[in-house]
Design a protein that fits this description.
Helix content: 10-25%
Largest sheet: 7 strands, antiparallel
Order of helices and strands: HHEEEEEEEEEEEHEEH
Number of domains: 1
Structural class: alpha+beta
CATH class: Mainly Beta
Number of helices: 4
Radius of gyration: 18 Å
Strand order of the largest sheet: 3-4-5-6-7-11-10
CATH topology: Immunoglobulin-like
Strand content: 35-45%
Length: about 230
Amino acid sequence: MNTRGLAATLAKTLSPAVLGLFIAAGGATVSSAPGLAQQAGGMPVTPFGPRVKPPAGAPRRQRPVQPRGPKPEIVMKNGMWKVVCETVPVARDKTVKTCYVSATAIDTRRKNVFLSLIVLKNKVKDKKGNVKITHMMNVRAPVGVYLPTGIGLEIDGKAIARVPFIRCNPVFCESLAEARPQTLSKLKKGTKARFIFYAAPGVGLPLEFKLSGFTAAMKKLDSLPN
């Protein structure tokens, strides 16, 4: 799917709050990433594509400045899981408050190998005006990952799902997919979740999330008004 098609699809299926957070993530700065140009298990994790030196005297291209709202507020923390609320832009002069559950796992031996998981509550209206509530799962991995294999999820040793990467920015590559009720139920009942992505074909980089506290965090998220 091209960028325009992706944007149109997301605009139809995501609430303004969720879409705003997803768009805002695209403006993240490289300085916030934990050592993305280091090596992972002997495989280089580096930005994609050749670096072409601009002609002498050429003006430097400036990245557009993303509007920044108030500092995110941690509403609750339980184990490695947090419920965070923040204000994100959805238009030039409009912002909304959105809340989500988040956790980050970092490899103990390779600090540049990390995975961040965000679960958002998505409220959209159908053609009849009825509000439908779903949950979206946003997973973020280091720039330089092997894209074709996407990200696999195992819960307590059982394969659950695999989702594709949909885009990369200078800080991370990410996927965005609906977290089905069956998947959320397994996460709530489980002990350990294992996400697997790849640095190269056959070079897996599994990271584990302890699920203690996930149920309480989701309960808190669903109780919030946004």
